[in-house]
TrEMBL record:
InterPro entries named in the record: KAP_P-loop (IPR011646), NTPase_KAP_P-loop (IPR052754), P-loop_NTPase (IPR027417)
The protein, known as: ATPase
Provenance organism: Pseudoalteromonas rubra
SUPFAM superfamilies reported for this sequence: P-loop containing nucleoside triphosphate hydrolases (SSF52540)
PANTHER family to which the protein is assigned, alphabetical: NTPASE KAP FAMILY P-LOOP DOMAIN-CONTAINING PROTEIN 1, NTPASE, KAP FAMILY P-LOOP DOMAIN-CONTAINING 1
Signal peptide (UniProt feature, chain positions): none
Length: 589
């Protein structure tokens, strides 16, 4: 089995990206700097952060490297303070052993308490009054990015009342902390905070690198709160932030925090916060092949010396893939001192066959995390089969798991239905495997028509199912792994689209249009599968049934989704209005 955590070993030639980021953040003239490592869920952002940190450790210049996992503080009372306090704690620890430096670090840490108090004060007042907090808090962090060292302010505590008329109720509880304008002026406190930080970093004479990860997993409020805290440090000397994020997730989170934010404002917000975006490239066939081979080698516990040799050969091959063919499996294993080389070679050859379909399938797109989870599914089923005495080849299980992920829930249900009704040997499978051309569309079940190119590639995968009884394999799949478990893992953008389509009550919806634009097309099938599952739970479809118009919208937007929806709609109770929808969608073919 393979861990779902980020890797410190590069299997996808991400070292090149990590080295590029290292070059940016080690250039003193470029500091302060904020770098965004952008990519979809599971694309490898966390691994790139780890590789960047490892690369910096090899530099002659010393760095203070701070790792902040936003998801760890998901339930924290103040997400902004969590990041500030994490940075302060690392700086205090780094100052241990030097009294003067430690005094400066402790002074900085104390100032964080005041900054945190200002945020909580505004939020507490708003909670009492039922008012939104965004005005005061955003002003607070706006001052942070605009403040200067010699700034004098006449801003009074009463100015925070822009968010609430109930601030007095909170201020009574803060007696002794906030007594007078001269003792507590928010802009002045921010200015002093920045001065303290600047003085501390000058004393350290070391750059500070802060890695912010797992924003993808946070609720919208926590996502933006963490980014707002980063604004406190923008334009501060000798500081770099490396933020791993799915940009679509951030854009979707902004309206939750900044009410009424337009699409342009969402883009502007990200552009102002992140100076240099670095996009994680989508793995191609060569990268997926290398990734599978290294995961297999890892699982087979190949000795360290030979493991490193395999990785280095594949990495070298990937670097020059633009001008030469990929290293063959036989050349890769040449001179390797390994036991059972023949068995390892066979597994590597299977990986080669899988790479093409995993890289090009619209429902996988070479996503490293999805690939790893597929392999874990295969391992789990193999172990279950062994315990039950099922003589199932691992390649058979692999082929079925790939079908499930790439074709979706409805198509997979149809496959197992054919296996059941035809004694484990569907004639359609044999026809697919023994036909050099794509089958006529009218031969295929409705549930399979949305991705015929995939079916053609999948049917060529080994082993051939023709003449094989698949009853045990189908039983294993349905009884031990919930149908659609792999396919249900979708990004935040796709989740938002699903929720929006279920809520859609009319045919035309600008909100749904916007959500469709923000969702990768490879996730449309997963969303449609979830919509159809939602509709199947309703016995009697009506026009006002939640999800009907959303499914119609998605079906009209994507041919694959149209076929999936049509297959489900034709099995629903006959309705005149539904018949019109079916005719309309069929006419769009």
């Amino acid at each position: 089995m393979w861990s779902d955590k980020e890797s410190k070993i590069d299997f996808l030639n991400f070292n090149e990206i990590a080295e590029s980021i290292k070059d940016l953040i080690t250039e003193r003239e470029l500091m302060p700097i904020s770098v965004g490592v952008f990519g979809d869920w599971g694309a490898g952002k966390s691994t790139i952060l780890e590789l960047t940190a490892n690369a910096l450790e090899k530099e002659e210049q010393e760095y203070i490297q701070i790792h902040f996992d936003a998801w760890t503080f998901q339930g924290y009372d103040d997400a902004k303070a969590a990041l500030l306090e994490t940075i302060a704690a690392h700086l205090v620890k780094a100052a241990e052993g030097d009294e003067k430096l430690l005094a400066k670090a402790l002074d900085f840490a104390k100032r964080i308490d005041k900054v945190r108090f200002m945020g909580l004060m505004a939020e507490g007042a708003a909670t009492i009054s039922g008012m939104p907090t965004f005005g005061a808090i955003q002003s607070l962090f706006g001052w942070a990015s605009d403040a200067t060292d010699d700034e004098e302010s006449t801003f009074e505590l009463s100015d925070l009342q822009k968010d609430t008329k109930e601030l007095g109720k909170v201020s009574k509880k803060t007696k002794g902390i906030v007594k007078a304008k001269k003792r507590f002026s928010p802009p002045k406190e921010i200015s002093e905070f920045r001065k303290s930080y600047t003085s501390l970093l000058k004393a350290f004479d070391k750059p500070v690198i802060v890695y912010v990860d797992n924003l993808d997993r946070c609720l919208p409020e926590n996502t933006i709160s963490t980014l707002e805290a980063i604004r406190l440090f923008l334009f501060m000397p000798n500081t770099a932030f490396v933020v791993a994020a799915d940009p679509d997730m951030i854009r979707l989170a902004i309206p939750h925090f900044h009410k009424g934010a337009s699409a342009r404002h969402q883009t502007d917000y990200l552009d102002k916060l992140i100076q240099i975006p670095v996009h994680v490239p989508k793995p191609g066939v060569a990268e997926v092949r290398a990734y599978l081979i290294m995961l297999i080698a890892q699982d087979r516990k190949v000795p360290e010396k030979e493991f490193v040799r395999l990785r280095e050969r594949l990495e070298e091959s990937l670097k020059f893939s633009w001008k030469q063919a990929q290293i063959s499996v036989d050349d890769l294993l040449e001179e390797c001192e390994l036991d059972a080389v023949a068995e390892l070679r066979e597994e590597f050859k299977i990986a080669e066959q899988m790479a093409l379909i995993l890289a090009e399938s619209a429902n996988i797109n070479g996503n490293p995390r999805i690939v790893k989870r597929l392999l874990n599914q295969i391992k789990m089923r193999k172990r279950t089969a062994h315990r039950r005495g099922m003589q199932l080849d691992e390649r058979t299980i692999t082929k079925l798991v790939i079908f499930e992920r790439c074709m979706g829930v409805q198509a997979t249900n149809k496959l197992y239905e054919l296996i059941d009704t035809e004694s484990g040997q569907p004639a359609l499978i044999a026809e697919l495997e023994n036909n050099d051309k794509e089958l006529e569309e009218n031969v295929l079940p409705d549930e399979w028509k949305h991705d015929q190119p995939f079916l053609a590639k999948w049917s060529k995968l080994q082993p051939k199912f023709t003449g094989i009884d698949l009853t045990a394999a189908a039983y294993l799949s349905r009884q031990n792994i919930p149908m659609g478990a792999v396919n249900s893992v979708i990004s935040g953008a796709a989740q938002a689209l699903l929720e929006g389509l279920i809520k859609q009550k009319i045919k035309g919806s600008k909100a749904s249009d916007a959500l469709l634009e923000k969702t990768a097309s490879e996730e449309y099938v997963s969303v449609m599968d979830a919509l159809v599952d939602h509709l199947r739970q309703i016995e009697d479809w009506q026009r006002e049934t939640p999800g009907i118009y959303g499914a119609w919208k998605l079906a009209g937007h994507d041919d694959r989704c149209r076929d999936i929806f049509l297959a489900a709609a034709k099995k629903a109770p006959k309705k005149r209005w539904l018949s019109l929808i079916i005719k309309e969608l069929e006419g769009a073919k």
